[in-house]
Amino acid sequence: MTPASARVPLRAFRAGRWARWLGLVSLAGSLCLAVGCHRSSAEQQVRDAVGRAAQAARDRDAGALGDLLSPDLATPGHDTDRARLLGMLRLARLRDEPVRVLMGPVVVEPRGNRMMARFTVTLGGGGGLVPQRLGVYRVETAWRVEDGDWRCYSASWQRGFQ
Known about the structure:
Blueprint: H1 10-34, H2 42-59, H3 62-68, E1 69-74, H4 82-94, E2 99-103, E3 107-111, E4 114-125, E5 135-146, E6 149-159
Parallel strand pairs: 1-6
Antiparallel strand pairs: 2-4, 3-4, 4-5, 5-6
Helix pairs in contact: 1-2, 1-4, 2-3, 3-4
């Protein structure tokens, strides 16, 4: 048994878990926009990558999502990194917990040789690791070309529409 002072309050654990799930879905959505057909425009490639990322989250496919994320992924203002996001997705798959992702419209804007993708996402799950009703989030992601493919290198999100 662990002493009471060493235990993490359940409320703190749940709050961190929600934020990490949001990060996972945000990145998944962002990534799906980034990896598109090489003949399509850069904006369409990023939009496609965001869609693939959302599908990877739904399928709980950490490998597919990891392919869309830059190794140095940054999540400003959040206690989440690439390894933690992919680990949570693997755990959801092992526990056979569903991940529900409903994407809103994706707006892609060029920023020099990089792209910014903004969208809303509604997240939910099966209750255990992923809460049944996670919420609606506004997400901003940044993309760049790495080894010939668009990869998400930064993602931030905010709950609701404040």
